[in-house]
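This protein record is not my work; I was only asked to verify it. The record follows directly below this note.
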Amino acid sequence: MIGLELERVPGAGGSGDDSRTYEMPSSDRKLGKLAAFDARSLRELWS
């Protein structure tokens, strides 16, 4: 992520950054995985 100069104008919005995403090789163009984990055991509960 790269921070950019941002003119602060009421109602304009924006986050002031520039970012890119890259899919992993052999991931069928998917960018990530949503999963839930048990905080004590770190066992994956669902994905």
In short: Strands lie at 2-3, 17-18, 36-37, 44-46. The radius of gyration is 18 Å. The mean pLDDT is 81.
